[in-house]
Amino acid sequence: MTRTSPVPPLDLPALFPGLSAFAKTATRLHPRRGEPDRSDSHVGGLLLWPAEEPWPTCEELHVVATETPVPPVPPLSTPSPELMAGLATMVPGFAGYTTTDAGSFLRGSTVQVQPGPLVPVAQLRAGDIPDVRCPPGTDMLQVLWCPNTHGEHSGPAIEVRWRQERSVVNVLPAAPPVTASEEHYLPRRCVVHPEQVVEFPDDEELPDDLGERVRAFEDSRQYGEESYSSVSRAPGWKVGGYPSWGVTGLIPMLCDGCHSPMDLLLTISSSEHRGAAWFPVEDAHVPESWGDPAWTVLTKPTGVTAGNEDGLRIFVCTACPEWPIRVR
């Protein structure tokens, strides 16, 4: 089913003369639960992976959850604060005390190298997604990650593969089983409904005079009114376009190798919803209610929680031959 963003409630180019020069397209993916074919563009599920190509594994340091058995604490209730303080010294990364039918455990975590297979996150065909950028000779982007938290960026370690679809002859039947310390890093299988939209940059990325006009306009907005920030960039999973920097403020994304500015390749979002300005017309009949499963399926279809309020973003440098990425 097609997904269509509503007509923007603000005509930003008319409000801010000169802004049109900074317009850029993005493709909203609009993931929805489903059973995609392995050769389709999709989120989660199977990848079109050559049987002869080794499946990637994570070799980085990451956070591993632990459970340390301890004798039950009488009475069968939460231990006293004094006892908890003593128990906390027994395990690194102490996160609490749990009693189940299997016994009593101290929950903790360690940072270690625990090699394991990566999880398929997304597969995007250039023929399906207008804003997918692929190196010469390739036409498909595949994204995988380790489903554990990593220290450097407090999120999953990401790997991208570009490939030529027709070169995959012998297909790997299934990905290896994984052990995840974070369930919210295991994307649910979703079909996508690509929609190309127009975006404009964060005010900090605009020239000074234009950025000042945008900020003055933002200051004039009342509670509940649409603003430049709510209308200029689409929420949710998207390819290309502009990043939303949120509470962090602008972070210049420069290539570690050639120091060139990097392009936004993919935004992986925890939610598809950020106000009415971008909520699909086809879903407008569903009332907003975070306790309603129907609303949850629309707003959190992938089950992924990653990054900050504006999602986890993958940037790419197309100036370097190997097209390196950075994650923020």
Description:
This is DUF1963 domain-containing protein. Pfam families: DUF1963 (PF09234). It is a single chain. This protein has 328 residues and is of the alpha+beta class. The chain has helices spanning 12-15, 81-88, 208-220, 228-232, 293-299, and strands at 24-28, 32-33, 42-43, 57-58, 61-70, 96-100, 103-113, 116-117, 119-125, 140-145, 158-163, 190-191, 195-199, 238-240, 263-268, 312-316, 325-327. It has two domains: 12-45 and 177-327, no CATH class; 61-113, no CATH class. A hairpin with an 8-residue loop joins strand 16 (312-316) and strand 17 (325-327). It is built from five helices and 17 strands. The strands form four sheets. The protein has a six-stranded antiparallel β-sheet, with no helix packed on it. Strands 2-12-3-9-10-11 form a six-stranded antiparallel β-sheet, with no helix packed on it.
Could you name the key traits of this structure?
328 residues, single chain, six-stranded antiparallel β-sheet, 11% helix, alpha+beta
- What is the count of DSSP helices, taking H or I runs of 4+ residues? 5
Order of adjacent strands in the largest pleated sheet: 13-1-14-15-16-17
The sequence of SSEs as H and E is HEEEEEHEEEEEEEEHHEEHEE
Report mean pLDDT, rounded to a whole number: 88
Gyration radius (Cα, Å) is 22 Å
- Count up the domains: 2
Find the structural class using helix and strand composition.
alpha+beta
Outline the biggest β-sheet: 6 strands, antiparallel
Low-confidence regions: none
Q: How helix-rich are the residues, as a percent range?
A: 10-25%
Globally, the shape reads globular
What's the end-to-end separation, in Å? 31 Å
Note the beta-strand portion. Answer: 25-35%
**E-strand count:** 17
Organism: Actinoplanes palleronii
Protein name: DUF1963 domain-containing protein
Pfam families: DUF1963 (PF09234)
